[in-house]
Write a structure and sequence with these properties.
The complex is a heterotrimer of chains A (274), B (254) and C (285).
Chain A: H1 2-16, H2 26-31, E1 33-38, E2 41-42, E3 46-48, E4 55-56, H3 58-70, E5 73-78, H4 81-89, E6 110-118, E7 120-125, E8 140-144, H5 149-160, E9 170-174, H6 177-186, E10 191-195, H7 199-205, E11 210-213, E12 220-227, H8 231-246, H9 249-256, E13 268-269
Parallel strand pairs in A: 1-5, 8-9, 8-10
Antiparallel strand pairs in A: 2-3, 3-4, 6-12, 6-13, 7-10, 7-11
Helix pairs in contact in A: 3-8
Chain B: E1 6-15, E2 18-28, E3 33-37, H1 44-51, E4 59-64, E5 67-68, E6 71-74, E7 77-80, H2 83-89, E8 93-96, H3 108-119, H4 124-137, H5 153-166, E9 171-175, H6 183-198, E10 202-206, H7 210-216, E11 219-224, E12 227-233, H8 234-239, H9 244-253
Helix pairs in contact in B: 3-4, 3-5, 4-5, 5-6
Chain C: H1 25-47, H2 52-59, H3 62-93, H4 98-113, H5 116-124, E1 132-135, E2 139-142, H6 143-146, H7 149-175, H8 178-186, H9 191-221, H10 233-244, H11 247-276
Antiparallel strand pairs in C: 1-2
Classes of the chains: A alpha/beta (274), B alpha/beta (254), C mainly alpha (285).
Chain lengths: 274, 254, 285
């Protein structure tokens, strides 16, 4: 009896005691600096403010808040999208928070802590007649070729166009989201696809020019990318993120960019379905 | 009196400030060999090049075979001819250059047939047969397929003479034809030129070879500082020159 | 009678002695040093974070082979276009006509003065400025339908190349002795015929080495057309690594193909030079 109560008491104490805050790995703590890199052409996640040329965005704010809570500074650098994963592998960056989608093909050497829902979404020029997503069957649809969207479009086309006896979507590659919108304006493509998290910003930039068609047609997550052998760092960051979700500061940052609807309930590891 | 083949009247040419030709007038008669002598810069080469319009004159007129060169007279004004018309006028004269100017990427035979075939539209086989005949005449039929780089200077100049003759000109212009040759090669070229003179070709020769002039020329013209100082029969100009400057020049070169 | 000359004393006859071979110590040392460095670099590449199995796997992948064929096709077509333009512009630049001269100078200035990638992007996005191309009232086409990646790349690369080629050819023409043009005139040739039959063939000898150089540069410049979606080898290699994240491995694949192409082109250029040196190589008698 006595042992049970002592056991219960100690368990309660352990449960109540604040969990030892997961610590940053020694080298980072010593340097007091997190080295992060972003592909700063992806509004509103990370981009250079056209007015001030400052590096701003949802990822910048999230990372900044996390770093503040851990008592370290951040040194930001910028690289092209294709260099992000190599930067992680070569340890030039401690982790990557740069609007990267969690995908199984990327999980060979890395783990994702998913922090934002995303998904490809169609949009057209405002004067385009398309109303439902199936109106886009047989049409030319463009997207950035370095993303996972071309595959998403192909899958969607098979399931929704070809399966219904309609012509398949014709995929047209673009170099980046600006290039894709240019091709839309010139009429080289009939519709374009971007991540749903980028559309509110893009549409606000050129009011009345574009119109979204339908809901995001695949479900995915944006994740913070860590090296597989970097569990300690990953846990430290995850913990802070969970705390931010709990106390509402996470939602506040998302709302600032009009992306409150893309919030996750809690940070999950490697949750994306494909 | 027969009409001159070439009539030069009051021709002037300036290169910037420098007066190369000052109101030069001269006649050249059919079948005669005329030698132009003088120091460098005297204008003799410039005058020669005005006759086939490699240089355009500033004022005056040159007639070849009765046709005014480079200009057309209409309503009392002079109008320049088009470059195509000028190119056609050049066909009346053949020129042999001091540095031969053979086309290095063509054989001797091809150098000679180039003009007749390309410019005059003659049949290739005919042109080749005539070219071989010309090579025979200058003593080089064995070198028909040689490239200029394989020929000595004297041989190249003889091919150049054949090339000019292939166009069947009325008048041959020679611009110091032996000045760039090694001394032992001068003779073969002069010999070809003598043969040409004997056959009745009208020849205008700028040269330093006074021996050639004495032997072959009908008339000699001495120029100095862009003007004709003295002209007349060879024996007179070379043997008993009237002008002091002519005497001074001749005594310096002999 | 004159005496034969005698030579002074004190200068021995060395004609029977041979010169000893030099050991060239420093050269052997330098060569050894370079081999050591190369071995170290090779070791680093072999042991680094590169997955060579991916290089092997994709080296002959269908899209990569298609890519290198597209690279070569574009390089050849753009070079042909560039040479044709270059000859025309060089002739215009050397013309006595001031209008032709200015147009040629202006073209060269504009297309050498702006980056190639900028020109490619402008051609591809021409529809932003000219939505339709054609003669108003007669026929018109949508610019986006005309400006395919292929045509945009061909125009961008060809017109840019023409500006550089025209300068090379102009230099070649200027290098031909002035007497050649005079001789051509003396047998009654007009300017264009003289250029075509006499001047340009001689200019070719001088022009082939720099043009061969330009062509090799153009083969690699085609990689810029990847940004306007022309499916040359870099574009296709990028598509592969966008999917599997093997950036360095796929870049090595593309790099090896470029090296192979240039290695074949270099001796070909030598053969071409030899053909145009006909008439010059035979020793003068």
């Amino acid at each position: 009896m006595m042992r049970l109560s002592i056991f219960a008491g100690i368990s309660a104490l352990i449960a109540l005691a604040p969990v030892n805050a997961a610590e940053l790995p020694e080298p980072i703590r010593q340097a007091g600096v997190l080295r992060l890199t972003v592909n700063s052409t992806y509004a509103p996640m990370e981009y250079r403010d056209p007015a001030t040329n400052e590096l701003v965005g949802l990822d910048i704010d999230l990372a900044g808040e996390i770093a503040k809570r851990l008592g370290v500074k951040i040194t930001w650098s910028e690289t092209p999208f294709a260099e992000l994963i190599p930067s992680l592998q070569t340890r030039r960056a401690d982790f990557i928070i740069s609007g990267i989608s969690d995908r199984s093909s990327r999980r060979e050497t890395a783990d994702f802590v998913d922090y934002l829902t995303t998904g490809p979404q169609f949009f057209v020029l405002a004067e385009n007649a398309a109303r439902a997503t199936t109106d886009l069957c047989g049409k030319k649809v463009g997207t950035t070729r370095s993303t996972s969207f071309p595959i998403d479009i192909e899958k969607w086309s098979k399931q929704n166009c070809e399966a219904a006896g309609l012509a398949a979507v014709q995929y047209v590659p673009g170099e980046n989201s600006i290039d894709v919108r240019n091709q839309l304006k010139q009429g080289r493509i009939d519709a374009a696809v971007q991540g749903s998290e980028t559309l509110p910003y893009a549409l606000a930039q050129e009011t009345g020019k574009y119109r979204i068609v339908g809901e995001p047609f695949a479900k995915g997550y944006q994740g913070i990318m860590f090296r597989k052998d970097d569990a300690a760092l990953r846990e430290a960051i995850t913990e802070q993120l969970a705390a931010m979700i709990a106390d509402g500061s996470y939602k506040a940052i998302l709302d600032k960019y009009g992306l409150g609807g893309n919030a996750v309930a809690r940070p999950v590891m490697n949750a994306a379905p494909q | 009196m027969t009409q001159p083949l070439v009539a030069i009247r009051s021709v002037s040419k300036n290169f910037g400030e420098f007066q190369a030709l000052k109101q030069v007038s001269l006649d050249v008669y059919p079948g005669e060999v005329l030698c132009l002598i003088g120091a460098s810069g005297s204008g003799k080469t410039t005058l020669l090049r005005c006759i086939n319009q490699l240089i355009s004159i500033d004022s005056g007129g040159i007639w070849v075979d009765g046709e005014l060169l480079g200009l057309r007279e209409r309503d009392g004004r002079l109008h320049r001819l088009t470059s195509r018309e000028i190119a056609r006028q050049r066909l009346k004269t053949g020129m042999v250059f001091q540095r031969f100017n053979l086309f290095p990427h063509k054989t001797a035979l091809e150098n000679i047939t180039e003009g007749p075939v390309q410019v005059q539209g003659r049949n290739g086989n005919e042109a080749r047969a005539e070219a071989m005949e010309l090579l025979r005449r200058v003593g080089l039929e064995a070198k028909a397929d040689a490239y200029p780089s394989q020929l000595s200077g004297g041989q190249q100049q003889r091919v150049a003479i054949a090339r000019a003759l292939a166009m069947k000109p009325m008048l041959m212009l020679f611009d110091e034809p032996t000045s760039a040759l090694d001394p032992e090669l001068v003779g073969e070229v002069l010999s070809v030129m003598k043969g040409l003179a004997r056959s009745g070709m009208t020849m205008l020769v700028v040269t330093h070879e006074l021996g050639f002039a004495r032997e072959v020329a009908d008339r000699v013209v001495y120029m100095d500082h862009g003007a004709i100082v003295e002209s007349g029969r060879t024996a007179d100009v070379l043997g008993a020159p009237r002008e002091a400057r002519t005497q001074a020049f001749l005594s310096a070169v002999i | 009678m004159r005496m034969a000359e005698t030579l002074a004393e004190g200068f021995p006859d060395l004609s029977q002695m041979t010169v000893a071979r030099q050991p060239h110590w420093r050269r052997w040392l330098a060569a050894a040093g370079i081999l050591v460095i190369l071995a170290a670099v090779g070791r680093a590449f072999a042991g680094g974070q590169i997955e060579w199995s991916y290089v092997g796997r994709f080296l002959t992948a269908k899209v990569i082979l298609e890519g290198i064929i597209n690279t070569m096709v574009m390089a050849v077509l753009a070079m042909a276009f560039g040479i044709a333009l270059g000859v025309a512009v060089a002739i215009m630049r050397l013309s006595p006509n001031p209008v032709l001269k200015s147009v040629a100078a202006g073209y060269t200035w504009l297309f050498r003065g702006t980056p190639l990638i900028l020109q490619l992007l402008l051609w591809f996005n021409l529809a932003l400025v000219f939505p339709t191309i054609g003669i108003p009232g007669l026929w018109s086409l949508r610019a986006v339908d005309v400006m395919t990646p292929f045509l945009s790349a061909l125009l961008g690369l060809g017109i840019n190349q023409g500006a550089y080629t025209s300068e090379v050819i102009r230099a070649g023409m200027l290098s031909v002795d002035a007497g050649q043009y005079e001789a051509a005139q003396a047998i009654g040739m007009g300017r264009l015929r003289a250029l075509r039959r006499i001047i340009l063939p001689q200019a070719m000898r001088v022009v082939i080495p720099p043009l061969g150089n330009e062509f090799i540069g153009l083969v690699k410049a085609t990689s810029l057309a990847s940004v306007i979606q022309y499916p040359e080898v870099l574009h296709n290699a990028e598509n592969i690594y966008y999917a599997n994240s093997r950036v360095i491995e796929l870049l090595i694949v593309a790099g090896l193909w470029y090296l192979l192409v240039v290695s074949i082109l270099t001796p070909l250029q030598m053969l071409l030079e030899r053909r145009f040196a006909r008439g010059y190589l035979q020793a003068a008698r």
